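[job 4471] stage=fold_predict status=RUNNING
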Amino acid sequence: MSMFQVGEVSRRLSLNPQTLYFYERIGLIPSPQRTEAGYRLFSQQDVDRLTFITRAKSLGLSLDEIKDILVLKDRQSLTCKAVYERLDRKIQDIAEEIQQLQVLHNELALLLEQCRTNLSHPDSTHQCVVLEKGTKNSSIVEQETSPDLTD
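[job 4471] inference complete, writing structure tokens
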């Protein structure tokens, strides 16, 4: 059975050796065998697991999500339904993040347009205040902190 040292595994998978130690520490991979001198030795099964982790990370899965999948895989409970549910949840998370980023994009584009308008200001030392002007939540804050005059 072939065994691989940390340097070889990290080169093969383009991973920093510290990443391998970290994955071991957080339980993504089992503690590998060791030589008499204490060097870690990884089996092909360990390398395959690390390849899986690397692939899952490249798909945007978090280490917690990967760990969840690996637990199921280790228990031989990684059904297509289980994978489907996790990937569906990930797609929903990504869609929400895209929506949040689109809102941020639109907000920044509006500020950029305000800056563009002020580029032709006659005073070249004029200070830009577009970032200091009210945010979309400032009116809420003002309403909450202003006294209620209807009492």
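[job 4471] summary: The two ends are 82 Å apart (CA to CA).
[job 4471] exit 0
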